[in-house]
Structures are given as C-alpha cells and as structure tokens.
Amino acid sequence: MANGIHSSSTARNGYLDRLPERLVVEGFRRWMAGYDTGDIQCWEMAWNLYAKALGPKQARSAMAELSCWVRAIRSNSARSVCLFPYGCRKLCRDECMAVSMVACVQHRDNDALEAAATQLIGCEHIAEAVETARSFGEMLDSIGQHLIPVPRPVIEDIALRPGRQHFH
C-alpha cells in the first residue's frame, strides 16, 4: 500500500508478497469472481490457495469466514466492486479498502474499519460487512495471519484517488 505503512522489504517486494494480505486480496478476488461469473472454478481456486497456504483444517475455517464477508459486501454494496484479475500484483482502490477492513479489525481500529467499509460499500449500510470482517479478521489473527495496520489517514488518502488506480 501507500505512505510507508510497511517495512522497506515489503515495499520493495510488493504488498502481496506477504501471505496474510495475499490471502485476503486473492481470496476476495476469487470469491467475488465466482459470484460474478457463476463459475465454481473461481471458488476452487480460492480453496486451493487457502489449503496450500494454511492446510485443509485452517483453510476450511478461513474460507467459511471469507465467504460470509464477501457475501455481506455484495449484498449491501450500493455499486459494483472493482477488482483486478487474480494474480495481479497491484491493488485497486476497492481492493485496498477490502484488505484495510480486515487489517483494521486485527488492529482494533474501529474508526478506520468503518471508514474503509463505507468507502468500499458506497453507502451507510455497513453493519453486516463490518461484522463479517470482524469474524474473518479475528479468524485469520487466531491462526497467525496478521495483516499490516492501515490507519485512517491512509484510507482517506486512498479514497481520494481514482477507482482503478494501481497501488503497490
């Protein structure tokens, strides 16, 4: 992401080189693509990513929380969520907001969580998405998948940028 919120090695190698962020972003992309296309292969790709990274037992728990979170975003969003194709090493604004939601849960930053959720969903109907983000973030935290903190000023900075702009 932007504004030096991560170590220099993360900045040099890319935000998605960190497993926790990659799981959130790639899981989000693949699960959303499954809904958008109706193609079960998208969900299978998400499962394969999680199972390889976490093992089947932890992957099952993480995927259950991921699916609830994505469903809540889709059902409450006032607009289409923009995504890059899976495997893309860059993030668009909506993807930054999605990963920020989960990071804010883990770092107990409720103000930033609500800001990211409002930006991602595009309206004030964020309660379900916030609650499912809490469950997902806490589940990832419980298995050692700790995301980098994303403070509210960074969320506000990203929100001012064009929707399809790339972030490293």
Give me the strand/helix succession.
HHHHHHHH
Helix content: 55-70%
Number of helices: 8
Q: Roughly how many Å apart are the termini?
A: 5 Å
> Structural class of the helices, strands and pairings?
mainly alpha
Major beta sheet summary? none
Write down how many β-strands occur, each being a DSSP E stretch of 2 or more residues: 0
Whole-number tally of structural domains: 1
Query: What ranges have pLDDT less than 50 throughout 5 or more consecutive residues?
Result: 1-13, 164-168
Shape call: globular
Sheet-strand content, in percent, reads: under 5%
Rounded to an integer, what's the Rg over CA atoms? 14 Å
Average pLDDT taken over every residue: 89
Word description of this protein:
The chain has helices at 8-13, 19-37, 40-54, 56-76, 93-106, 110-121, 127-142, 152-159. The longest helix is centred in the middle third of the chain and has 21 residues, at 56-76. The chain has one domain. Mean pLDDT is 89; it is low at 1-13 and 164-168. The chain is mostly helical and 168 residues long. Helix content is 66%, strand content 0%.
Keywords for this structure?
globular, mainly alpha, disordered C terminus, 8 helices, single chain, 0% strand, 168 residues, disordered N terminus
